[in-house]
Amino acid sequence: MLSIRRMGSDDLPLGLRLSAQAGWNQTEADWRRFLRLEPDGCFVAQWAGEPVATTAAFVFGPTGWIAMVLVDESFRHRGIASRLVEHALDYLERRGVRTARLDATPLGMPVYERLGFLPEYSLVRVQAIIAAPAAGSAFVPLAADRVEEVCELDQQVTGTPRGRLIHSLYVERPEVVTAATSDGRIAGYAMWRPGRRASQIGPAAALGSRAGAALLDQVLHRCPTGPVFADIPTKNTRAIQWAESRSFTVQREFTRMYRGRPITDFPQRIWAGSGPEKG
Ligand SMILES: CC(C)(COP(=O)(O)OP(=O)(O)OC[C@H]1O[C@@H](n2cnc3c(N)ncnc32)[C@H](O)[C@@H]1OP(=O)(O)O)[C@@H](O)C(=O)NCCC(=O)NCCS
C-alpha cells in the first residue's frame, strides 16, 4: 500500500499543498531550496500510488535535520509519518550522520518519541504585525566576503556545520542579511525571508544580548508591513524579552529533539531559528 520515493521538482505543488494545509509558512522558494540543498534526501510517500506525504532530511556534517514531515489530513493515523521518518533516518545513517535532530510540533512529538527521539528544549513561534515600515533604520547588508565568518559563528552557536544552508540563503537574498562586529570580528548575524503567511525572521545568532537585540531590530525594520514570525528558544530569555517589548505574542510551540549523540549548542545565543525546517 505504502511506497516511498525521492521527491523531485514535479512534487513542488504537493509540498506546497501539504504545508499550506498544515498552516505552515513555506513558500515555493523554500521548497526549491530544500530540493537544491539535499536532492537525495527529500522524499514523498505514496498510498496506493497517490502522493500523500513528504519529508526532507539534511546532512550537515555529523548532524542530520529531519523536516517537512507532512501527511495529508485524510491519510493520517496509518503509520505513514512513522515510516517516512524511519526512511529519512536510514538515509542520514547511510550518510554517516551521528545525531538526528528536528523541531517537533505537538502532533509530531509522539511519532518521534516512538522512534527514539528525546526532547532537548523548547522554542516559541512569536508573531507580531508590522503596521508601517520603520523609517531611517540603519541596515548594512552583509558583504559577500564575510559570509564564511558568519557560517563559523553559526557553527559555534548551533554546534552544527550549517554553512551550506547559510550560503544558500545568502545567495538567494543577500540584501536581507546583516551582521554585527566586535573588534572587527563577526559577533552576530540575522536575516529574514518572505513566507506564505508572514515574513520569517531567522536564522539569527549573537554572542551578546545587546548585539542580538540590535540585529533583530534591524531585521524587523526591514520586514514589509503585515505579520512577522520568529522562532526563539525559550532558554534565550533576552530574546524573549526583546520579542515581548516589540509586541510579539506566542503563536505556537516546538520541541527541539534529538536521536543519537547529544549536540552541544548554545540556545541562549540563538536569537531566531531558521524555521522548523533546519533549526
Ligand atoms: C504529525 C503527522 C505528520 C503525523 O502523521 P501520521 O501519518 O498520522 O503519523 P502516524 O500514523 O505514523 O502516527 C500517528 C498516530 O497514528 C497511530 N497509527 C499508526 N498506524 C496506525 C494504524 N494503522 N491504525 C491506527 N492508528 C495508527 C500511531 O500510533 C499514532 O498514534 P498517537 O499519535 O496516538 O501516538 C501529521 O499529523 C501531520 O502532517 N500533521 C501536520 C504537520 C505536522 O505537525 N508535522 C509534524 C512536524 S514535526
Any key phrases for this structure?
279 residues, Aminopeptidase, 12-stranded mixed β-sheet, 31% helix, 34% strand, binds coenzyme A
SSE inventory with pairings:
Elements: E1 2-6, H1 12-21, H2 28-37, E2 42-47, E3 50-60, E4 63-71, H3 80-94, E5 99-104, H4 109-114, E6 118-130, H5 147-158, H6 163-172, E7 177-182, E8 185-193, E9 199-206, H7 209-222, E10 226-233, H8 237-245, E11 249-260, E12 270-272
Parallel strand pairs: 4-5, 9-10
Antiparallel strand pairs: 1-2, 2-3, 3-4, 5-11, 6-10, 6-11, 7-8, 8-9, 9-12
Helix pairs in contact: 5-6
Architecture per CATH nomenclature, i.e. the level-2 architecture of the largest domain: 3-Layer(aba) Sandwich
Structural Rg? 18 Å
* String of helices and strands: EHHEEEHEHEHHEEEHEHEE
SSE class: alpha+beta
Describe it.
It is built from 8 helices and 12 strands. It is an alpha+beta fold and 279 residues long. The chain folds into 2 domains: 2-97, Gcn5-related N-acetyltransferase (GNAT) (Aminopeptidase, 3-Layer(aba) Sandwich), CATH 3.40.630.30; 124-272, Aminopeptidase (3-Layer(aba) Sandwich). Strands 1, 2, 3, 4, 5, 6, 7, 8, 9, 10, 11 and 12 form a 12-stranded mixed β-sheet that branches. It is globular and about 55 Å long. The site of coenzyme A has 17 residues, from strand 4, helix 3 and helix 4.
Summarize this entry quickly.
By secondary structure, the chain is an alpha+beta fold. Helix 3 (80-94) links the parallel strand 4 (63-71) and strand 5. The protein has eight helices and twelve strands.
